[in-house]
# Entry
Amino acid sequence: KNEVEQSPQNLTAQEGEFITINCSYSVGISALHWLQQHPGGGIVSLFMLSSGKKKHGRLIATINIQEKHSSLHITASHPRDSAVYICAVLAYGNKLVFGAGTILRVKS
Amino acid sequence: NAGVMQNPRHLVRRRGQEARLRCSPMKGHSHVYWYRQLPEEGLKFMVYLQKENIIDESGMPKERFSAEFPKEGPSILRIQQVVRGDSAAYFCASAPVGAQETQYFGPGTRLLVL
# Structure
């Protein structure tokens, strides 16, 4: 079993829909990152969380430390949100352990 | 303040050649991490360095791979005698002292071994 599990693996949505991507982890962590990667592109850090909730524009990230679970929400989705979203936890000191990613496609 | 810089962005090597990947951290950052993304796979940790020290290299293949972060200049990930299986995207990230959890990623180097 992977230490970081994401669901769904693939997600197709219509423009304007509310999107949720989930991340569960099984190790002790000091922080959790949500990352965005466009095809052939670099990695952008969207959020770093150690507790509670953060919001940036149309993106919201939450974390429940007790349940070892985090969610990334996108409100009013847009085709430019199409990308791979990756959950990564900071564990074993300063190492990031990554989920497999969620491939999001938003259709207009 | 420029972000994390990596060069080259794309690198093509023939089997048996050496590949040198460079990472310049953000100004003031003294922690550097290297990650590898194999085709159709997720990102994996390779090595964590501070200036002139390797802190954790548990993710580095035991042979042919080495990394350094000298007092002056960029961090270098060196792959000797490359094989086709080394073809991947290599990302580095940097973090400031006292905030190692805040990692900023570079654009990556795409290595293709022919």
